[in-house]
Amino acid sequence: MPDSPAFPHRRWKDHPVPGVDFPDATTFTSDPRWVQTACEALSARLDKEIDLLAGIDIGGLGFAGALALRNGLGFIDIRKVASIRADVVRSLAANYELGNGIALSKGQALDGRQVAIIDDCLMSGGTALATALLLRRLGANCTHALFVFELEGLGGRERLTQNGVAVHSLQGLPPTQPK
Fold it and tell me: How many whole angstroms separate alpha carbon 2 and alpha carbon 170?
């Protein structure tokens, strides 16, 4: 996380669970200088073999699209099951991060593709791990995940690393906003 600026953000107190204050990136995404700074920093952490980005609903979608455009890559959207209506492939796992799981539209050409996950915040790693496992099940090689924020001490980095996913985050934060 060195060489990254402190991104301006607000914290949602006790969200998604008590004792966790979620950092909201939308407080800086309306400023093109901050978006460019985030994309440049995320791009510097992209493995050269990556040819497809998987943006996680909802915070990772904008970053994945911007990063894909910047780097000449493709991108797909990983959606929460309840928010997608198309014919989908899904992975069900009930927890506070996933609700009823994640899904992506069928028909994606993933076999043999080098895919990196993009999201705004890493907490416990449940959503990112479910995404990596779903992408792998569909034939993709998914070994990298990039985040703007990482809430430290919640086990997300360890969970992903134990499952063969390298974690790259731009800014580490404590789980709760200091008083």
Answer: 8
Q: Are 122 and 167 in contact (CB under 8 A)?
A: yes
Residues above pLDDT 90, as percent of the chain: 73
The number of residues making up the chain comes to 179
pLDDT in tens, 104-133: 877 888 999 999 999 999 999 998 999 999
Taking the CB of residue 124, how many other CB atoms lie within 10 A of it?
A: 20
Residue 128 resides in a domain: yes
* 179 found inside a domain: no
Provide the residue range defining the domain that includes 36.
Answer: 10-173
Please tell me the predicted confidence (pLDDT) of residue 108.
Answer: 86
Write the pLDDT tens digit of every residue in 25-54: 999 999 999 999 999 999 999 999 999 999
Token pair belonging to 54: 């998987």
DSSP label of 29:
T
Answer yes or no: pTM beyond 0.85.
Answer: yes
- Domain count of the fold of the chain: 1
CATH of the domain at 160: 3.40.50.2020
- What is the per-residue burial (b if ≥16 Cβ within 10 Å, else e) of 71-95? eebebbbbbbbeebeeeebbbebee
Q: What are the Cα distances from residue 162, in Å, to 20, 98, 143, 150? A: 23, 20, 11, 17
